[in-house]
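A protein record pairs a chain with a discrete description of its three-dimensional fold. The following entry can be read in just this way:
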Amino acid sequence: MSKTSIRPMIEVALFATIAYILDLVTQPMSIGPWISLSFKMVPIFLLSFRWGVGAGAMGGLIWGLLQVVTGQAAGGWLTLTQGFLEYFVAFSLIGISGVVKPVLDKAIIQGKKLKSLVYITGGILLGGFSRYLIHFIAGVIFWGSYAPKGQSPYLYSFIVNSSSFLGETLASLIVFFALQRFLGRLLNTEK
């Protein structure tokens, strides 16, 4: 196995574990009654921007798998299909943010910081939305019966999942914007 193929595999395992640990040990910071900032998706986004869609998807999958095998997902697992969707498919879809890697790399090489942040924002929005779209669908199908009496399962799932989507996406954007000065070094996989 070559050195170039081992390094991304090590980072996939490491970043997935960091996401899992952040999920376990950090408490979301509330900003208003509906949104709580949470930084747990940041390692998967970083992985996706460094190595692309495949590595990001694998990192998300491992993060979801860690939640299942450690029992953290126990309260959120209703059926085999629902659990598969919400812990394997949804978490893997965070990796789709890596589709911006080629244009992001080019913008970073050219020193175009604003353009880099635009691509990062697009990647984070795409990855976060893809994950929460699956959670929304599962919310309608599997969790809809928990909606308050008279409330549509669609509205219920939207309310429950949109607050998480907004909080985690906003937190991820804040981190990458704060690190903009270091993006060239942070996302460089050549060294």
Q: What stands out?
A: The helical segments are 3-25, 42-51, 53-69, 80-92, 101-109, 113-142, 153-178, 183-187. The chain has a mean pLDDT of 92.
